[in-house]
Amino acid sequence: MRVGVLIAVGLLMALTGCSTQPMRDLRDQLRAAFHVDDGDSALRLGLRQYDSGQYAESARSLQTALDLGLNDADSANAHKHLAFINCAAQRERACRDEFRKALRADPKLELSPAEAGHPAWGPVFASIRGTSPFKSALQLYEAGDYDESAKSFEGALRQGLGDKERASAHKHLAFIHCAAQRERQCRDEFRKALAADPALELEPAEAGHPVWGPVFRAVKAEH
Fold first, then answer.
1. How far apart are CA 43 and CA 35, in angstroms?
2. Alpha-carbon dihedral of residues 51, 47, 73, 9, nearest 10 degrees?
3. Residue 132 class from Cβ within 10 Å (0-12 exposed, 13-18 middle, 19+ buried)?
4. Are 34 and 8 in contact (CB under 8 A)?
5. φ and ψ at 122, to 5 degrees?
6. Taking the model in full, what pTM does it have?
7. pLDDT, tens digit, for every residue of 72-87?
8. Rounded distance, CA 5 to CA 2, Å?
9. Could you report the per-residue pLDDT of 148-193, keeping only the tens digit for each?
10. What b/e sequence results for 189-219 when a residue is b if at least 16 CB atoms lie within 10 Å of its CB, and e otherwise?
11. Rounded distance, CA 92 to CA 39, Å?
């Protein structure tokens, strides 16, 4: 039966958008016979295709799922993945449109830390959702995803930050570099942090860190 459902979903995908009466009748018969009116099977297929890197096929399946009908949470998930696909393909306007549709379906929608830190769609979602790239970068850092956090901090710096946030971004980049034993880059980032905020001090837990605590104190002593 599962194979039959997948075949039906494939036929429904091919028939979606057909406007002639015989095609509409056939589409309705397939929906009734295989109980795929709600689009769940097409959604699952689309998500599997997305996970396997079949993005064009995934986009078609996800759109078919939306056309067949989904509940609000699933609709938001489908639009979110369509946004990812469009942003990755540098179709920013389409990406923004899909994120807006996702948020209309689920106004409380949030991206996971890894999703929020993605350089292609993270800033786009943040600008629509009202979450700044800087905050997304902090969330990634706190989640332990340091590589993506560094990319997000650098993106936030390129977009422009106030002095305090700029100092914090450079400070966290310094932490990341020091933890990776890149001391020269760590020192450079601490210098940039202090240039943005000469009064910057580390929190007690930060200052006591054995890797970057001594580096910060040495850089601070230069000023």
1. 14
2. 180
3. middle
4. yes
5. -55, -55
6. 0.52
7. 999 999 999 999 999 9
8. 5
9. 789 889 888 987 889 999 999 999 999 999 999 999 999 999 999 9
10. bbbbbbebbeebebeeeeeebeebeebbeeb
11. 26
